[in-house]
Amino acid sequence: MRLKDKVIIVTGGGVGIGRAYATGLAKEGAKVVVADIQEEEARKAASEIKQGGGEALALPVDVTSAEKTQAMADKTLQKYGRIDVLVNNAGLYSAIKKKPFAEITAEEWDRVMAVNLKGLFLCVQAVYPAMKEQGKGKIINISSGTALGGTPFFLHYVTSKAGVIGFTRALARELGPDNICVNAITPGLTISGPQQEGVLTPEQLQDRRRRRAFQRDQYPQDLVGTMIFLCSADSDFITGQTINVDGGMHMY
Ligand SMILES: NC(=O)c1ccc[n+]([C@@H]2O[C@H](COP(=O)([O-])OP(=O)(O)OC[C@H]3O[C@@H](n4cnc5c(N)ncnc54)[C@H](O)[C@@H]3O)[C@@H](O)[C@H]2O)c1
Fold first, then answer.
1. 21 flagged as catalytic
2. Does 2.30.110.10 match the CATH number of domain 7-245?
């Protein structure tokens, strides 16, 4: 087990890709805090982990609230006494409809930035004191391949996910002296749940398969190995990096 007794918070861990991260990290021995605005889903994910013999705690959180992200960190410390890793996975993705940029309202823009960028900032502020005191920590931010390819009709989302890469680089420099690794993952288009399957047409999925070196669909499980690596001691000298996991669609 590569993550034995590591305390890892996964935001947005109740459904989709976050749930696959939470389950995969628990199988490696981590004590996983499943933190999600969908409280019931977080509870289900945590109890599934426990039924499988792992350790998990479900917590409600809205990552746009400083008070709630602080409560998430405080409750994690009360229960487990430390915070080794923060996985900043919560995001507005499947809830957003693609539309021409001129039709995006200022409110929609602000909401996407609040969850996908400010949310990361508030979660990091909440866990940082514990990581600093421990003399070690890891922060893993979820960006998106859309920031590499410039997907159209998704301007607020793509802009937020490009911001995650800058956030990762600047924070890695700032937290290097504290021995805290800060990295990002850019997942390719991933079939993460039934809600998304309805959004993507068979033609869009076929087009995506054609553009990959591995010409098949991408699933949450395809991302879990990279996540385990970034949470483990094997990646202790890697920071400020963005690791692209998309079956060879983008190559930089
Ligand atoms: N599915 C993809 O193709 C894909 C590709 C690249 C990147 N991503 C990113 O990966 C992450 C997970 O993607 P997914 O497909 O599972 O998305 P999803 O939309 O299915 O899940 C997002 C999760 O975030 C949670 N969440 C939303 N707002 C929140 C808030 N204010 N506070 C706390 N939790 C909140 C949701 O409850 C949910 O658990 C997201 O950051 C997404 O942008 C997804």
1. no
2. no
